[in-house]
Amino acid sequence: MHSSLTRIAAALVATTMLAGVANAETLRWARASDSLTLDPHSQNQGVTHTLGHHIYETLLDRDVDGNLQPRLATEWYLKEGDPTVWVFKLREGVTFHDGAEFTADDVVFSIERAKSEHSNMRQLHAEVESVAAVDDYTVEFQMVGPAPIYPNNVTNTFIMDRGWSEEHDLQEVQDFASGESNYAVLNANGTGPYVLTSREVDVQTVLTAFEDHWAEEPPAVTEIIYLPIADAATRVAALLSGDVDLVQDVPVQDIERLSSTEGFKVETGPENRIIYFGYRFGEEPLRSSNITDSNPFNNPLVREAMELALDRDAIRQVVMRGNSLPTGVATPPFVNGWTEELDAYPAPNVERARELMAEAGYPDGFTVTLDTPNNRYVNDEAVSTAFVGMLGQIGIQVTLASRPVAEHSPIILANESDFYLLGWGVPTFDSAYIFNDLVHTKTETHGTYNVGLYSNPELDEKIISLGTETDLDVRNQTIAEIWEVVKADRVLLPVHNQVLNYAMREGINLAVHPEDQPRMTTVTFSE
Amino acid sequence: MLAFILRRLGQSVLVMLVVAFIAFMVFRYVGDPVVSMVGQDATTGDIEQLRTRLGLNDPFYVQFVRFVGNALQGQFGISYRLQQPVSQLILERLPATIELAFASALIALVFGVVLGIYTALKPRSFSSAVIMTISLVGVSLPTFLIGIGLIYLFAVELKVLPSFGRGQVVQLGWWRTGLLTESGWRSLILPAITLSLFQLTLIMRLVRAEMLEVMRTDYIRFARARGLSQRAINFGHALRNTLVPVITIAGLQLGSVIAFAIITETVFQWPGVGSLFVNSVQVVDVPVMAAYLVFVALVFVVINLIVDILYFIVDPRLRDGARTGR
Amino acid sequence: MTDLPHSPEQPVPARTSRLATFWRSDLVWSYRHSPVTIVASIVALALILMAVLAPWIAPYNPFNPATLNLMDGMTPPNSASYSDRYFLLGTDNQGRDVLSTIMYGSRVSLFVGIMATLFAMVMGVGLGLVAGYAGGLADAVIMRVADVQLSFPAILIALLIFGVARGIIPPNHQEGAAVWVLILAIGLANWAQFARTVRGATMVERQKDYVAAARILGVNPILILLRHVLPNVLGPVLVIGTIGLALAIIEEATLSYLGVGVPPTQPSLGTLIRIGQQFLFSGEWWILLFPAVTLVLLALSVNLLGDWLRDALNPKLR
């Protein structure tokens, strides 16, 4: 796309580099898929949020270390004397792209919208009973009970303008079942640093800098051309051929080549996502095993043997090309509750693992099927294939069932898998998020992804208490206790934390964002 | 005549219904759309609720009847993935696919016919053997590999052609064309070649075979005996007789080029209906998948119908919809 | 076969006279005079032998995960690996010997390709004969179904059938059945070509006097079809069959690119190419190149044999 022009432009930039940064900088930004919708509350999905953050803004934000930062809210605190009310002080002098002023009323409207029936953001605000504007720049959130870590949940909930939304009939979030599409799917009016100029779904989206944005410094990138390129090889080729400037989803095997090629570089950083293997608990025999009278996974010795068979460092080195952080606990380091001791993992020991298998009563091993997605996580299928080989060495003969994630997820969620690979991101940066969905006994509201059906009533009780415990020290102590049991019980078999890689042409600087939601406002240009 | 057309029309409608039916039956096995629609934070209760609301818990014949009913009114619903009306999505993407399909059909036809004639006229020559062999290399590799190989060579190493996309487009009414800009033409080259290789080989071999057959017929021998020049025989008589079945096949193939474009469009990030379909399959976007399949079936049915009617007009002996040369 | 008398001076024993006749037949004549075909058949034979004999001649067994050492991964051709083993063509990202995986992979690909083509052939020829000979309603139904089938690219059909099979077979048995599902999917996606060709040829044959005569004499139609019509349509069927075989092998590869296909622990040639394709830019060229060359050689030689067969079987072209 405009490749000859760009090359000329690039040459011009190179020759006039001494003159400093050019005034108008266009950034052509490619990643694997497009944002699903511009309706801010319709989808709770990383790619969609990433684009959203350029057009809309949230009350709070996270920096690249994962810490909460002020954005549309400048201060936030529990109301004095009432731990069930969160107060947010709002930024003054903020305007929407259409010129309307940003006030507390817009926050009330947006949170209510995000809580409404068709919103996919509503789980994050389930603890909010009501929202009220105290004055133009103060909002109070009445929670159903004490909610000590609620501010973690607002970092992806975008604020819309009430006036604009009502004008275009947007009180309701896009309803999939309605058969119609609402105005906000293709149009936007936020307070964000960029204004939507044009959008062609799956092809390109153009954003230009918002001149009246509240930030003191205007962004170095004045125009963003966002280009989804589905095929990984094509995406890398587009960067190498100069057709794009920045590629977000870089295959790990291409990193070395890109960083060693003149004119390109790769930024690397940890992602807030853990990759783990899960297995079925309970007495019932496995569906895919030759052992038909018991469940080998239910035997702690077998789980220990499997952990000793798993060579995390080999996976890191060969399958991930050094681009992963092997770990012994099912939480990324960003998350509250993570400790170095938990993170430690045993060195692989096949001898000992074989002994454990014999001790457990399976000297000849057993057969089982491992379900793995093949298009969801970084080299997911290769990670599973590698583990199949390692398990083979201790007698566990694994058949690998590799499926696209659209097929994998339903099988997993229906509790139909004996043994599976899954990844888990932690948008709240708090362990409770992991416990709620992966450790708590599976019910209507909890343990959605606890598909191995692990159940420990004692832990369940502790997990529930985390939601309302206001003394943060007590709460953190409970988290530590839960992790201890989860790790000792080997509820999950963590492999590694994913590492993110952004490849770009030389002269662009962009740090990796732990939630893979980079902000083009943070891009700087250099020589 | 009218009865024949009516009967074929009836059959075509039946074909469309069968296609829709099969397609619909299949969707329930491709995966579950709801899981990718609700995101990680949704509870089991949320998932179940959305599934019910979308009618995915209904028996599949109920879903099918509802789909056909809506489709008859031109309603294909909204895409689960992109939340836009499906008919609009397909219409937006259609020009890209049609331009790509025509370009590659043209390449296939021109080169296929020329090379086919050449190899037929010099059946024993070394160059013919080389052409025949090389043409096979093109179909001996999976399309995705050819596409990526071309990108690597022409975009990354030589840097002469764009690696992806459609270049700059110009809006002509609802038709978005890439044929009016230089970057549009340059972007078209690699995907069109990739897509044409298969048909090119097919057409070339067909032309060669037909041409060889025709050259053996009494009619050509007679022409030769009459002392007509070799050139006049080759192009005046032999070729003309060859082209009828060739054009028939080429016409029928146009439909399959559109369908074949799925892989090519994905590799080149070509914004056509094929890549839309692949993206939809990945998240089980049932409304788009259904509409796409019905659309492809419609293209084929229409082309088949036209070919049949033409045959009927050309050769009235072929009643009963019988066709030769296929 | 080895001591077949070649020289005409030698007395030809009565027993070998049939062989001698065969040796002098048109088919063999055209074979002997086509160097391309001779090379193609040698290549095809070598590849098929390599695939069939893989368990005995391959240096390693890449389908046995317990023997793999992940740390051997990405070893370049002809160099020492981490665990000091020797890999002539290097290893892939799982530490599998590329040469052995190609041998075993060709086995999978050829098996899927041949079975799928046979399946398509039997189904297509059968239905084509019936449609062409019977005409009327049977013809209309069969050809309309063929229309439906041809309305979709083979890949799409295979994808859909694969999906249905996945839905019907319980999750835990899917991987064992994967190869058969592939065969079914690719076979069902390709029968219509056979049916169309055979139907056309049958309709032509049906008009001929000898068939009409046979019919008047009250010969069983099945007998007519098998004895008179089938031999006449066999040529084109064989030609479509060989090209279909090449096509089926490629289709298997494409399905694998789309993420469905044989389990990645037992890769076919197509799966190997899909995996190798990821290393196009990263410098591990051997993971892609060797399987790709094998696939091209296989498909090409089969296609060339199909070509020769077409020309040789068509007496009008001789």
Automatic annotation (TrEMBL), chain A:
Main location, first listed in the record: periplasm
KW Transit peptide (keyword) present: no
Full protein name: Peptide ABC transporter substrate-binding protein
Keywords assigned: Signal, Transport
Keyword Calcium listed: no
Domain of life: Bacteria
Domain Solute-binding protein family: start-end pairs: 68-442
Compartments where located: Periplasm
Gene Ontology molecular function terms on file: peptide transmembrane transporter activity
CDD domains hit by this protein: PBP2_NikA_DppA_OppA_like_2
Family statement: Belongs to the bacterial solute-binding protein 5 family.
GO process annotations (BP): peptide transport
Signal peptide: 1-24
Organism, as annotated: Devosia geojensis
A single Gene Ontology CC term: outer membrane-bounded periplasmic space
InterPro entries recorded: Peptide/Ni-bd, SBP_5, SBP_5_dom
TM segment ranges: none
TrEMBL record, chain B:
InterPro entries per UniProt: BPD_transp_1_N, MetI-like, MetI-like_sf
GO terms for cellular component: plasma membrane
Residue ranges constituting the ABC transmembrane type-1 domain according to the UniProt record: 94-311
PROSITE patterns per record: ABC_TM1 (PS50928)
Transmembrane intervals: 12-30, 100-121, 133-155, 188-207, 243-270, 290-314
GO biological process annotation, one example: transmembrane transport
Source taxonomy: Bacteria, Pseudomonadati, Pseudomonadota, Alphaproteobacteria, Hyphomicrobiales
PANTHER family found in the cross-reference section: ABC TRANSPORTER PERMEASE PROTEIN, DIPEPTIDE TRANSPORT SYSTEM PERMEASE PROTEIN DPPB-RELATED
Keyword terms, alphabetized: Cell membrane, Membrane, Transmembrane, Transmembrane helix, Transport
Protein's name in the database: ABC transporter permease
Keyword Transmembrane helix applies: yes
Gene3D superfamilies: MetI-like
Origin species: Devosia geojensis
Locations listed in the record: Cell membrane
Highest taxon of the lineage: Bacteria
Similarity section: Belongs to the binding-protein-dependent transport system permease family.
Recorded topology in the membrane: Multi-pass membrane protein
UniProt KW Cell membrane keyword: yes
Extent of the signal sequence: none
UniProtKB/TrEMBL annotation, chain C:
Record's keyword annotation contains Transmembrane helix: yes
Family: Belongs to the binding-protein-dependent transport system permease family.
Keyword Transmembrane on entry: yes
Transmembrane segments: 36-58, 108-133, 145-165, 177-198, 229-250, 285-309
Descriptive protein name: ABC transporter permease
GO-annotated biological processes: transmembrane transport
Lineage, top ranks: Bacteria, Pseudomonadati, Pseudomonadota, Alphaproteobacteria, Hyphomicrobiales
Domain ABC transmembrane type-1: 106-306
Membrane topology classification: Multi-pass membrane protein
Organism of origin: Devosia geojensis
Assigned keywords, A-Z: Cell membrane, Membrane, Transmembrane, Transmembrane helix, Transport
Coiled coil: none
Protein localization: Cell membrane
Example of a GO cellular component annotation carried by this entry: plasma membrane
